[in-house]
């Protein structure tokens, strides 16, 4: 059905782009920078959504929906946030098209239907949401507000790549309001932890939890928590962020509450989000030169059954066996597809399911009928074995659990092997050019040093890890004293 | 917590607006015509989504996601569709803001960041989707394509009302591609039936299935199936539509396939959608002067338990009983909330849960502790009874089923009592002005007659019911011969 993928060593970036398209995950659209998420890719995203949504609700959050548009006057109210996003805003200026008098059959913007105030298509929703919260909050009894929204957002990026950086993307954005600084900080850290648990346990991707430096923070935040993952090419990917917004938005939108002592104060805020970018992280962490490798938790089909037969009679016998297996698997909530299409040969089916990352493949042929066996192939290790039909569902259930764990362990081993402590800037540059990955180095805490390192190496500080131990040292660049190491890397 | 609602007889429209806001379903936002869907309203919408999504998947559909924006040149490709929506399009013309040189701290559209081609914010997605399908379809093997999308859409309506007509709304839109006309027609009818089953069984709202007349059809459709419901004020509400699009979009976007005989033909299409408008139908079908009345299937909390106590000791005893009830209800997947807030008096809690339409209220007081009973109150009938604690979960389970059925029956009786056969235009006008509801009348089949009736009465043909029997008669307006009755009504 498709030629082989470019290999990762040959051209990692090309491998990624080809894989996304050939595995039917997504494709570019007629709109610059906007993608079409195809049914197979969307089914994976739906599984992520369902699990995250469950976790959000379990931690006391409710969903709601706020407008797509932000009037310019609200958008500019929180200055840093506005400044951070102004350069990549899609702006609605008119509300009507009309027939173009010069071009029959064509339309043009109706010059008389110009909006009095331009509307920004939300790049993030703090402004419209805090303008709304203003009316919802009077006293401490109205707090906390713990709301999440699943939505599309638009950031007019100049260089786009499917899932990793697109002009429109899908995400969730949590927006919470609290009585105290402590509560807001705790919420921001809690949600960063929720993300870490989700990405590690569900997506089988190890992450490092940390804080962003000031220059890498979300525009309008006082502190940004993040989870950072490592891709197979040695580049880091920010998988999720959770922002402590202090009272910045409360001040910008004048959101005050009366506390238990009857005093007025501005409300404390957080916001946090993950996006379809996680699809990129998923692909680049686990996949190989044969295509996608999906952890069982995220696979739309966890098992595929393929019959090999020479005549109708054999097919019927095999189908009977397959139906029995499917029934048992479904009773264990394992998703399974029987691929008995007669328009494709087995080899083509193998290739397709391999490309699409189905974790387990069962092949049933005439020999298997005789021996009461099936052939079981693992997508992640590309290993095959002959397995008894008896207790097959139990075998598969435990194998799927094992795959989920082993995929995480493999990614963790790779990640841990790619964290390198360096002491000098020469070492820094050498490691970055040869091995890549995270570089753990002392930093003097200044933006100047951060900027220079970035200019000279393209590496940025991915995070100040939360679990770092205090350790005296000298900045890898300026040689000034430093109290802890931070993680540098080139990043997506 | 809130003053009484305006009554329905006093001012139906005001009653609706107040109810939506006071029951915490939605509110107007700072963006003209766009609403904020609040957590309680969104929880109801999520229940609708989950059930519809399940039904779509059961009928073989998959979800996907297409861009928010439609380049103008694609938007105008299908002429009728473009003409139908051009007047209400939000149009993105620029992709950047900059500091306004004349107004410090303010932003303005960057005149140098004008898009070469304007982008229409999707009012519906046929254009962008058929432009995509073009690349997905070569032969009959690629068909059918059965895709649904959950999305936000924007139609710049001049007069808006929460849920019923908003500039931005949430919906799902199915877009399918088929080999034959027969298949496409069958799909359009199937999905209209799915909508009917959902709205009747899940929302407890009776509907009439029918076809739209040519002038009421979706712009670009050859036939529009619909389901029509009747609101308590005697006005009709279109609850869902399913369009047979013929080959119109295939021709506009040049989407051809090679059939089994090796011949090329244009692909046949359908599209179908329901939206957050259904929330309006839900509210206006069942609610009363005390507030929202929710069918158990859609209630975020199906049961609320309220303790009445004089001291901490009593509260503790009541809480023990309540916890036991909750455990049993949850094991039956019945959602329940224990409202033990000490910041509100019981009366205020009763009013709030009544306003928010919780189907069943359990009150536990000191007397109940003595007698092993609880007080059970139905929201739909406003009736109360003392019920034994023994087997309470079973009692509640069957009562919830009963409420669901009785709410449907009540709405059906009302609807059926408001379908009036008329033979003369005087009768037509009189019924419309006095009783309202659906008027079943003969019609000569011409748009002229339809238009004149609309001009003179504001009533439109809601549908040509699918189950109508052929019956000779004379058009209620023109007195020309007619073969069947159609349903007229004033409509939302």
Q: Would you kindly provide a brief summary of this structure?
A:
The structure is a homodimer of 492-residue chains. With 492 residues, chain A is α+β, with helices and mostly antiparallel strands.
User: What overall form of chain A do the CA principal axes indicate?
Assistant: globular
What share of residues of chain A is helical? Answer: 25-40%
CATH topology of the largest domain in chain A, which one?
BirA Bifunctional Protein, domain 2
Identify the quaternary structure here. Answer: homodimer
- Provide mean pLDDT of chain A, rounded: 97
Strands in their spatial order, largest beta sheet of chain A: 3-9-10-16-13-12-11-24-27-23-22
Helix-and-strand structural type of chain A: alpha+beta
CATH superfamily placement of the largest domain in chain A: Bira Bifunctional Protein, Domain 2
Work out the largest interface and the residue count of each chain: A-B, 64 and 64 residues
* Spans of at least 5 consecutive residues with low confidence of chain A: none
For the record, what CATH class of the largest domain in chain A applies?
Alpha Beta
Number of domains of chain A: 3
Counting DSSP H or I runs of 4 or more residues, the number of helices of chain A is 14
CATH hierarchy: architecture of the largest domain in chain A:
2-Layer Sandwich
Beta fraction of the residues of chain A? 25-35%
Radius of gyration of chain A using CA atoms only = 26 Å
Compute the separation of the termini of chain A in Å.
Answer: 31 Å
